[in-house]
User: Fold these one by one.
Assistant:
Number 1:
Amino acid sequence: MLSWDPVTLSRVLTGLTLFVHIVFASIGVGIPMMIALAEWRGVRKKDPHYTLLARRWARGFVISVAVGVVTGTAIGLQLSLLWPTFMRVAGQAIALPLFMETFAFFIEAIFLGIYLYTWDRFKKPILHLLLLIPVAIGSSASAFFITTLNAFMNTPQGFTLKNGVFADFQPLVAMFNPATPTKVSHVLASSYTLSAGLLAGIAAFSLLRGRRGVYFKKALKLTATAAFVFAVSTAIIGDFSGKFLAHYQPEKLAAAEWHFETMTKAPLIYGGVLGENGEVKYALELPYALSILAGGTPNTNVIGLNEFPVDERPPLLIHYMFDLKVTIGVLLVLIPFLYLLRRWLPKGKNRGKGKGGYPKWLLLGIVALGPLSMTAIELGWMFAEFGRQPWIVRGYMKVSEAATTSQSVGSMLILFIILYLVLCASCITVLVKLFRGKSVDDEMRELGISGGERK
Amino acid sequence: MSYEIVGITVLWTFLFGYLIVASVDFGAGFFSYYSVLTGHENKVHNIIQRYLSPVWEVTNVFLIFFVVGLVGFFPDSAYFYGTALLVPGSLATVLLALRGAYYAYNTYGSSKENNKAYMAVYGATGLLIPAALSTVLAISEGGIIQEQDGKVILHWSSFFSNPYTWSVIILALVSVLYISAMFLAFYAGKAGDKDAFEVLRGYALLWSGPTILACLFAFFQINRQNPEHFRNMLNIPWMFIASLICFLLAVYFIWKKKYLGWSFILVILQFGFAWFGYGRSHLPYILYKQVSIYESFTNETMAVALITAFVAGLVVLIPSLVLIMRLFLFDAKYVRGESPKKG
């Protein structure tokens, strides 16, 4: 591994940092929204269960924010450390959104600090709830700014190239490039889905363990319903993203679909393997589906990969990432939908026996929502990033021209692998301890709330 | 004033903000751990923890601001510093990551008792990080980063054998402890916590001597390292004299146990004068003789956009900072610990 060239090593290290950061960043974007929802219901319905829910979520949330902050700092610094040539050429193009992202995060950090330490300080509970608005706006705004930057690297515009340097920069044109709307909304919606799914999973897990209190049922209802709404929006925006790709980044869509010849009535290929001569075997072929995905009608002309020079094609491996992510997306809509239909579901033998009246398989499915959506987010980002290879700024600068020339990237990679292992393991340990340490029932008794475990 | 000067002033101010806030933070982490080790725990630990908890996230942001702004205003500096600082920069990143995470684990994660292992991580990193970051100042004096055959190289041997490097590291270490102790003494005084105040005042006085000695040592090492920079410093002697006067007054006030608020403001002014005097005489170079603010400046549109974003950001940021300070710093009830703790 150490004998790889700095470019490959830089790619691996950046990829690794983002791989870790994305999970915590998505949680950081979505959970404030969920906490706000719970607290809002608590205030509006004067229901202390929801307030307690918000409180417990917030407590765990800080731990994940900490890891999100430090991995975010890492990627912020690595941009300059690993890609100095890229920063020299495009640094001015990307500094503005980065700068604004930091501002948004600053606001979020300040108000989160206030929120956590003012649970009982205001006379009116609504004032405490209002503190969450800047937190949620701040976290979503930082996702917005950072994603516009990534969108810019996919569909760059708003500058001219003079002697190899980006010049005459128009910041707003660059920020609101064609990729921005679909990318930003997909990132936000999928982060909300992940967070709702994770929290739903926790509630379902408690019910599976035989906890029957009404607290858990309320938690499940709020989170599973939210997960359904968010998953459906993610899927709809995903469809827009497909149309965007067909128009602006046809090589990415073509590589994802193993679509070589430009044609109308293009079929969509699901799964399969690629033979030596580029023929597709064992795949499920859906006629017209790719044309419909790309343009809404079967007669849409979909550009094939053969139109692009070989050294400008993305790796064909992204096909699997795309398929897997879409499959998971379907599951993410389906599972919470089944929850919404719970009254009409066939009643199994176990129903009502210590599972809060839900079928066991449904609860297991809901527990899986978190890991599934996490996988989908990782796959989605990997698809988006591998899919623009070999470019770092599509059409202008290749990845191989942008990396550091330093010979020490290998040892830094090992250092960061150890760091991330330590961080993730310790984060999970601390979170588990935190929730085991103080059970819901104890806390409800402490706060004088009824409706805990009915024995 | 030209955009170049505005840009570098904005960035230098941010770095100064980081210097003060982070020093308080890093030093507090160290003192907090030290107090638990030596059994002074109940005296000072709680008051330190009460200050640190709501603000720890804010500190990191100052640093990122600086780095991002530097790349935006002066893209060439990213190229030189980015390539050369891969190893020290990554090490500092790892330390920052460990410190942030373990701070949160100890404060929010563990149940009532302090986890000594967690505290050791952020106490120790609290001293290592300033040492690692301060070396950039030594590098910026030139001679250590060189470009050969289109590759940027950091000369480790001349870096470590240089007395100036070590003088900057020592200065960073002692001033972190000094700034932090001065602030915490003021904070404890504000809370009316006599025991904590006495301990922290002791720390502040203890570290004041080494701080001024380290300042003088670094000051004269600049002359050996970079005579041109030193001559520029002598052209604005009033700034360094003002710094010294602020130092003497601050220590006098804390010695007499009065005007504690002013005492800490004087500490800020002491470092402010020295910091801006040092920065001003360093101009026009960001990296001596290789990156100057005039040659590597971003284009004008971007400069205007960055400055606009900066002003707009401040409009939101300053009221928020005032709010958090009113809630946690200047709220006597909170400082005394009468308000309920974390949720």
Note: Chain B touches chain A through 71 residues (CB under 8 Å).
Number 2:
Amino acid sequence: TGPQAGKTRAVGIVGIERKIEEKRKETDKNISEAFEDLSKLMVKAKEMVEVSKSIANKIKDKQGDITEDETIRFKSYLLSMGIANPVTRETHGSGTHYHMQLAKQLGDMLQAPLEERGGMMALTEVYCLVNRARGMELLSPEDLLNACKMFESLKLPLRLRVFDSGVMVVQLQSHSEEEMIASALDNVSEKGSLTAEEFAKLLGLSVLLSKERLLLAEKMGHLCRDDSVEGLRFYPNLF
Amino acid sequence: MSFEWPWQYNFPPFFTLQPNVDTRQKQLAAWCSLALSYCRHHKLYTLDVMEAQESPMFNNKKIERKLSMEAIQVVFEELRKKGNLEWLDKNKSRCLVMWRRPEEW
């Protein structure tokens, strides 16, 4: 095994130092290259943002209430750059094509799990379910929300619903609210009074949703509350 | 003769101010009539807000419920609006309770 040709043979401490120096130079080069490329990329992206802004202004000039193909394509451009900006573009193409397709897919996918859970699921629960099933190409929370917002306009059998507390749920359209409230009242009357946790156990629901049901029934005047150190209990409204 | 409590007095939600507007109105009406009849029965003319919270009127020991300070203020304010109550000082800590309104006398 002879010495490698063309390379200074590393001997002793000087050799080690030289080796370290070489390695350092190489990583230096790699790092600076990476950053250079990155800044070049940023410049390009900046241009894209500027161009898209000017296009947005042009669309604004020609106000239209029909969803034209052009604006739809524009939306998906914005989306691919990660600058989806619905605030100024809401009048030009309601949502994106991508979200529309996603909404349809969700409609098929959620039907069975919703029926299993009594017709209602919290949005976070849906998020878990969908992303766990996907494994790859996961959804961002924003994508899911945007897709859910389109259920109604696509005439899908699902609805996105926002409770007064800000909790968002997806429910089946066939899901009847009056029935839900009536059954809540029945359950509470039967037991005398219930907390959200007890109600959740009784129905096999999540605590979050059972609380929303009780609050809804309270809002409609069927229940009233007893707030004490023992917890928040709901009673039939005898007043 | 002992004082006869209304049925609401043993109903725990009576001691929590209800968020539902309709329900709250009924609740306050019941509180007002309870407060007036309690004062009439015990011949009370003035009330101290702090003492009132500890008195049986706002404190049901049997079901371990007590009306909160804010709720008592709301009840008193409701009574004042109806003309059955007048504050004796600016801090609203003592008040004069009138079983009948001045114009009824």
Note: Strands of chain A lie at 120-122, 158-162, 168-172, 194-195, 223-228, 231-236.
